[in-house]
Amino acid sequence: MTATLDFQAADFVADPYPHLSELRRQGPMLWHEPTGRWLATTHDAVSTTLRKRALGRIWNDWEPVGEMESFNSLHRNQMMENEPPAHTRLRRLVAGAFNRGHIERMRPRVEQLASGLLDKLDGTVDILGSYAEPLPVFVIADLLGVPGDDHVMLRDWSQAIVHMYEEGVDDETRKDAVDASRAIGDYVREVVAERLKVPRDDLISDLITERERGGHGLSAADSGVGKLSEDELVASVVLLLNAGHEASVNVFGNGIHALLTHPDQLARVVSGEVPVLTALEELIRFDAPLQLFERTATTDVQILGETVRKGQKVAALMGSANRDSTVFADADAFDVARDPNPHIGFGLGPHFCLGAPLARMELEITLSRLLERFPGLRLAGDAPRRPTWVLRGFERIDVSLEDS
Q1: Choice among 141, 180, 243, 315 that is catalytic
Q2: Pick from 101, 200, 226, 388: CA 20 to 30 A from residue 261's CA?
């Protein structure tokens, strides 16, 4: 069946969920003529798409190639845009930093950062700009060993780059992304040069060590060819800087807005009736921070009765999957006690979000400490959405703390 939905339409970007519901009604796999790709609409179709090894992340450089090189290089050399064996090699280099034990050792620092940011809040504030946005950048900066004071600059560069993941990118967006890619690449190369002279106890120093070891400890099948190149090192660090806070900020923003517009559900969390960890999963499901993840068929493959030909793309609509009523009872309702909650907010398969444990820990702390400190938190006016859909979030969320 063919779909003709306009993903750039204002009403879709403002609230995609009624439109996504109609897509699911039409079928689990739909051909989308305007973009020339398949749409996986249901939980089953999205799960199958993300797990199929015949559907991979195949990077194609943006054109003109020379003009776009700074942006292209950051993507063709990082794990998210590669498949095994390159993906396996690159992912393993950083995986140790995100294991559960290491993440838990970071908990006191995250607690300290959250408390310090909350101490500065008073009256009416933009809870995104003053709290949700700085904290994850501080955390990933600590992990990588770069100055936390650079968080505004890093956030701006990241925003310019990820705008390229949206539908209908214009020339200004492309230019901003190229400029930001060049700036953040130069920034990371300077840090790498410093660590080559004086190593520290941080992830960049660890990656440099792995670069020199040439993937020591990996099997021949997984190690790929050669050692970690400088471009791969830089691209891996930039990916962690970008991904290390984008998801956390948007989950927090979408989630706190959902809580503040559903006071009955907020009360269940504030009172302790529903644990924050349980509520977090519903925050991720209800208004997914990442709505679409694209895969490309490396060979002809069948998905739920439809043949995806080699070279064709499949857009896995993750926000749609998270509202599938065949999996989630009363799927359009916001229920902080929902359990089980098999959402796909962090993806599935080999590209499952490596930073999911860190994001969950950050979100648990930021939400818990905020509601403990300001249990009477309330919205102070309309919250404008970012004019994007693939990465769904808010521009700002003004809240009042006065009655808390």
Answers
A1: 243
A2: 388
